[in-house]
Amino acid sequence: MPTGEVLSQSEIDALLSALSAGEVSAEEIKKEEEEKKVKIYDFKRALRFSKEQIRSLSRIHENFARLLTTYFSGKLRIYVQINVASVDQIPYEEFVRSIPNMTFLYLYEIPPLSGNILIEVNPNVAYAMLDRVLGGLGKSENKIEHLTDIEQKIMTKLFTGAFDQMRESWGSIAEIEPQMKGFEVNPQFLQMVSPNETVVVISLTVTIGETSGMINICIPHLTLEPVIPRLSMHFWMQTEKKNKNPENVSALSNRVKNAPVLCTVELGNSTITVEELMGLDTGDCIILNKKIDEPVVVKIGGVPKYLAQPGKLKNKMAVQILEEIKEEKNEHE
């Protein structure tokens, strides 16, 4: 019986009854508990990613699934829903055995990371997409053995655009540039890594109208190895702390201080009729509502900020700031 498991009253009564009748002995129960302390480890299924790293990969691909949902919904013009079903680490050989013998396999490079990743699209999903692109209702018809060159070209173009979305979702761990390298229908002809190499398999559930299926993303450990440290919570915390660094705040402040703003000086204003406006000619004068000894208004970005005195500086028109317009400042805050 697992340690820490809570028994119901009926289970406790049944256990006491079995002990009293001699059907079960306390020594046997103790022996079973000791045996369960031994954990079997399969060296062919070496766990090379921690639970924390798997969770980070899951979060990244949940964002990727949302981007794919938007992309395919727009391209196919039909209801599409994509979600992360599971994220597992298994040997590559086990992944190959788990997918159909005839399926859609796309091999991608993701420079600057070395190695490749494999995208497996279930035929149900692929043919529903193909039917929709060709003007159908989005029904699936599995005839992958007779895939024509035109159908292959359409599907390749569709998924080339789809997995460009990976660039955005992976931005937090690496600036990648996904590039399709090849297409295959039989997984036995696509030996990406050695059979015992550990790979992460992200399984996405896809619903297109009334058709559903899976898309599997297979990423070898060797490909992710350079960015594995960035999959930890410690990295995320460091990144957040770095973004709040006083040096960054100071640099941002300096940029704001040096940003250009429009400064205008209002010498005064006046009110005239439309008839007077239409009759204006060169040399005419308009009387302003300001006296010559009254301060003028200086506007920054169209907002009155200062009172100033007009004059000249080195034979150029200038104004001398007299005071700040505090009332106007408070009014615009």
TrEMBL record:
MF terms per GO, please? Answer: cytoskeletal motor activity
Q: What InterPro entries does the record point to?
A: CheC-like_sf (IPR028976), Flag_FliM (IPR001689), FliN-like_C (IPR001543), SpoA-like_sf (IPR036429)
Task: State the annotated membrane topology for this chain.
Answer: Peripheral membrane protein
Query: What is the protein's name according to its record?
Result: Flagellar motor switch protein FliM
User: A GO BP term, please?
Assistant: positive chemotaxis
Q: Which UniProt keywords apply?
A: Bacterial flagellum, Cell membrane, Cell projection, Chemotaxis, Cilium, Flagellar rotation, Flagellum, Membrane
Describe the location of the Flagellar motor switch protein FliN-like C-terminal domain by residue ranges: 255-325
* Alphabetized Pfam families for the sequence: FliM, FliMN_C
Location of this chain's protein in the cell: Bacterial flagellum basal body; Cell membrane
Homology family = Belongs to the FliM family.
Q: Name one GO cellular component term.
A: plasma membrane
Organism for this UniProt entry? Caldibacillus debilis GB1
